[in-house]
Amino acid sequence: MKTSNETKEKVVVIGGGVAGLSAGVYALKAGFEVEIYEKNKIPGGECIGWNRKGYHIDNCIHWLTGTRKGTELYDVWKTVGALTDETEYAPLDAFYTSTYNGERATLWNDLKKTEEELIKLSPEDEDEIKKFIRYVEYSKQCLFPAAKPMEMWGIRDYIRMGINMKDFPKVMKEFGKISLEDYSKRFKSPLLQKLMCDYLPKSYCAYSFLVSYATMADGNGNIPMGASLQMSLRMEKKFKELGGVIHYGCGVNKINIEKKMATGIELEDGSFVKADYVIPTVDTGLLFGKFLSKDYMPKELKTAYENEKAYPATSGFQVAFAVDKNFNRSGEMSETVFIDIEPIKVGNRSFDRMYVKAYGYDPVCVKDDKQVIQTCITQTDEDYYFWKSLSKEEYEKVKTALANEVAKHIEKAFPEIKDSMEYLDAWTPLTYERYCNAYHGSYMSFVTTPYGKQIKMKGQLKGIKNLYVAGQWTNSPGGLPVAVASGKFAVQRILKKQHRDINI
Ligand SMILES: Cc1cc2nc3c(=O)[nH]c(=O)nc-3n(C[C@H](O)[C@H](O)[C@H](O)COP(=O)(O)OP(=O)(O)OC[C@H]3O[C@@H](n4cnc5c(N)ncnc54)[C@H](O)[C@@H]3O)c2cc1C
């Protein structure tokens, strides 16, 4: 590290999403000069929202892990300015509701209430329901470790984890190698089978679902009021307050490597920015192949890109509408409701389930007497290829036709909103590809399935001494916790290399 009399060492961060802003804040706290280069006009990357016809469409947070004070992840969210002790959260008391054949089942945050309701719905599944609830309870012990990267853990850290997570190995043993689809078959009730498979892609390892539900049930997975974009803007504010500079509309083309050192970045306009350290936070599909030669790609990532079945990418076909603001505000079910629909072909596959999420809990998504509702039909690699194969005209035509079909399904399931329903927007995997350069339009990292190993990158690449990779793709299945922690970890790795204190 140069002394205070010399100019500070410069960290250049590529990407102004959650990982990039986090890396920026932590690098400033560590005393570096920091510049972020972002191709878009606003911060946030995937964690944003946009306006249509005066309504706000929230693109991202369905639940934010790490909202409980006292957890390591909460400290990270607080440090980067995303959350404060005054942050208010959506007053929601359930994860979601699944409906089927006129019946409905809800995963309440209150596990006892869920257990009682599910047993009432399907007494013949009592043992399996009780087991599910017991294992969700165990899963509450699975807290995201965000104090430092695991390669810096000492024996005491492992002992502490062993004590705090003493029951979690049981979850991994039982649910670590079984897909949600296979797990759901343990229930006799078709409604409960749907409930288990509705939220995450069916190929996900079942434990991911249990941990997600446990996070909500434990009060550690909330939705900050004000929606996703506001959270990203709070991070940007913190970064700027600490003296960081962020360049918008500045796409990066390449990272320059000379004699095993990243000397800086080349922008799309051809100019060059020198750096002492480079932290790329973009998609690894873009990093290796465009910014850097594919030869630098770690073996485990290469395996993932070459095996779509074991490492699928997830995206969505999404539609937003404005409807009566009283819709689904009675508290009898959650604000996210899955419904059965006549099969609809989206991309290359057919779907018979769809959800409707009502955003009326947040005034940001309410205008006059209407609120925003959104729906998402999960898309994967083969659907991406379908969208990609269309011409511009075909794409618009297919998108509009599907949005109309989706509207009809919603009207049929909820006739009470038929008259108030107003179309706002529809978007596809290609939207995320265009906006964030997301691989196959995926807004999470690779899905963790029973057929592939979880990706866990240490951030450094063989053959480059001063480059530290961050972003959600460093650790599958990605998501906001991985993104924010990866920014911090990249800076801690630099500090470790410099033999400095990593506690920032
Ligand atoms: C619909 C949806 C729902 C989601 N729900 C949740 C949820 O409930 N909970 C959760 O934890 N996560 C959720 N996520 C995922 C979450 O948004 C992402 O995991 C997270 O935002 C990824 O952050 P990142 O910084 O790693 O990547 P990104 O957000 O992709 O940031 C990368 C940045 O790099 C920029 N960039 C790309 N190419 C270039 C270039 N050439 N030059 C310069 N900059 C470039 C991009 O514009 C972008 O800003 C959701 C995402 C979506 C879209």
List the helices and strands and how they pair.
Blueprint: E1 10-14, H1 18-29, E2 33-37, E3 49-52, E4 55-58, E5 64-65, H2 72-79, E6 94-100, E7 103-108, H3 111-121, H4 126-139, H5 155-164, H6 168-175, H7 180-184, H8 190-197, H9 206-217, E8 221-222, H10 227-241, E9 245-247, E10 252-258, E11 261-267, E12 272-274, E13 277-280, H11 284-287, H12 299-306, E14 315-324, E15 336-346, E16 349-358, E17 366-367, E18 370-379, H13 381-389, H14 392-413, E19 422-427, H15 429-436, H16 480-497
Parallel strand pairs: 1-2, 1-13, 2-9, 6-15
Antiparallel strand pairs: 3-4, 5-8, 6-7, 10-11, 11-12, 14-18, 14-19, 15-16, 16-18, 17-18
Helix pairs in contact: 1-10, 1-16, 3-4, 4-9
The structure holds flavin-adenine dinucleotide (FAD).
The site of flavin-adenine dinucleotide has 36 residues, from α1 and α16.
What does this structure look like?
The protein has 16 helices and 19 strands. The model has no long low-confidence stretch (mean pLDDT 95). Strands 6, 7, 14, 15, 16, 17, 18 and 19 form an 8-stranded mixed beta sheet that branches. Strands 9-2-1-13 form a 4-stranded parallel beta sheet, covered by helices on one side. It has a 3-stranded antiparallel beta sheet with strand order 10-11-12, with no helix packed on it. Helix 1 runs parallel beside helix 16, helix 3 (111-121) packs antiparallel against helix 4 and helix 4 packs across helix 9. The protein folds into 3 domains: 10-47 and 72-84 and 225-309 and 452-497, FAD/NAD(P)-binding domain; 104-222, no CATH class; 315-441, no CATH class. With 504 residues, it is α+β, with helices and mostly antiparallel strands. The relative contact order is 0.18. Bound molecules: flavin-adenine dinucleotide. Residues 14-20, 37-40, 45-47, 59-63, 251-252, 281-282, 286, 436-438, 443-444, 471-472, 478-481, 483 line the site of flavin-adenine dinucleotide (FAD).
